[in-house]
Amino acid sequence: MAVNGGLPLRDVKKNPWPAWPVWDQNEEKALLEVLHSGVWSYNGPKEMEFDHMFAEFSGVKYAVSAANGTVTLQLALEALGIGYGDEVIIPGLTWQATAASVVDVNAVPILVDVLEDTWCIDPEEVEKAITPRTKAIIPVHLYGSFADMDAIMAIARKYNLYVIEDCAHKHGGEWKGEKAGSIGNIGSFSFQLSKHLTAGEGGILTTNNKELADKLDALRNCGRRPEEEVAEEVDKGAGHYNDEGNFIQSGNYRITEFQAAVLIEGLKRLPEQNKKRDKNAMYLNALLKNIPGVDPIKRDKRESREAYFNFNFRYKKEEFKNLPVEKFRKALAAELGIDVEASYEPLNNCSLYVPLTKPFRYRINEKHWKAINPSRFELPVCERIFREESVCTHHKILLGGKEDMEQIVSAIQKIYDNAEELM
Ligand SMILES: Cc1ncc(COP(=O)(O)O)c(C=O)c1O
């Protein structure tokens, strides 16, 4: 076994995995264009072009880009008027930003458990968590699975709640023909380096509601009103917007033209890449079914277009002679020369979600302080996934060929056959 000093199945020096991020001379050209133009930021032509492209790609009327996928969540909450005294229901298994954005607007994140087969928020748990203070649900389409949007939207309608889709992992996915980010009131996307559309950092918001789009646009731009609206009023003699045009308090969450330039080129490639990842993941999942103790993540039949993020599966140690999942992950990483990780840490005990370390910001009163303590939530399914079952790999492996998928399966089979040696 490679982890014990033996020969790995893959020699990554001779046979490297596909590189991430993907770029070519188109990005180089576009970046130089921005450089020479001198328009490096602030509602520039690349930003406007990308917003239009992304709105069309996501099947929505409006898309508003911003600095990253954390502030997009915060701006979405603010645009919906969510703040102190409100509760927002989120899954316990997600990146810390989903919760951090809620505490940052002084609302209370209510952590609920996820479904064991998709790792996405459990609609039954959502309904149980609703109180008179609940204002919104943030389903996360985690690792490329789709949250059950039929159930979530039905609950939202029944209790009159907003839905913000956290689509940081789901650019281009479709639920019954509707694009991720077009189903709830607002969709939030990240373009951080690990994401399958990236400019290193960046984010975007999607919506079909003009009023919300205008608010989001103002919120990412120091509270300034949309330029067309201002221009019309200036024409009517209302004066310049910099002085009296601000209509909402906010900060600077803008994206740069360099990011937008890279995103435009990346978005042109994304549909093909999504197709390739999907085809490879389906092939891989079909092969993995033959190995006991490896359960593919469920692909919901209502997902009409898949957009894989990481390639993950569920591990059952009983089938691997009780080999702990940590040892399995290390062995797989050594055979294939890739990183193999656990899922995100459940947010009730997560080293990066620690709101009680900021009393000067969040200790508004004792009731609020207690309410935002993440450890008050019980998340048994999230904990089991994190501690015992999750095996997560980078999406770049899904850009390989058929033989690469077969090699991944061979590596898992090798561990299965030699589990005793690894104990
Ligand atoms: C589910 C989820 N939501 C939000 C974010 C935040 O995005 P960003 O890193 O662009 O701030 C991430 C990033 O990893 C994420 O995975």
Task: Describe the structure concisely for a colleague.
This protein has a domain at 25-268: Aspartate Aminotransferase, domain 2. Helix 10 crosses helix 15 (402-417) and helix 11 crosses helix 15 (402-417). The protein has helices at residues 25-37, 45-57, 71-79, 97-104, 123-129, 149-159, 210-219, 227-235, 241-244, 257-288, 325-336, 359-362, 366-371, 380-389, 402-417, 419-422, and strands spanning 62-66, 87-91, 108-112, 134-137, 162-166, 174-175, 178-179, 186-190, 203-207, 294-296, 303-305, 311-315, 340-341, 390-393.
Uncertain stretches: 239-243
Instruction: Determine and state the CATH class of the domain at 25-268.
Output: Alpha Beta
SSE order, one letter for each helix or strand? HHEHEHEHEHEEEEEHHHHEEEHEHHHEHH
Bound molecules: pyridoxal-5'-phosphate
Largest sheet descriptor? 7 strands, mixed
CATH topology of the domain at 25-268: Aspartate Aminotransferase, domain 2
Per DSSP E runs of 2 or more residues, the count of β-strands stands at: 14
Order of strands across the main sheet: 1-9-8-5-4-2-3
Cα Rg:
23 Å
Distance between the termini: 12 Å
Percent strand equals 5-15%
Tell me the name of the CATH homologous superfamily of the domain at 25-268.
Type I PLP-dependent aspartate aminotransferase-like (Major domain)
Kindly report the average pLDDT value: 95
CATH architecture of the domain at 25-268: 3-Layer(aba) Sandwich
What is the helix fraction of residues, given as a range?
Answer: 25-40%
Count of helical regions: 16
Which shape, going by the Cα principal axes?
globular
Class by alpha and beta content: alpha/beta
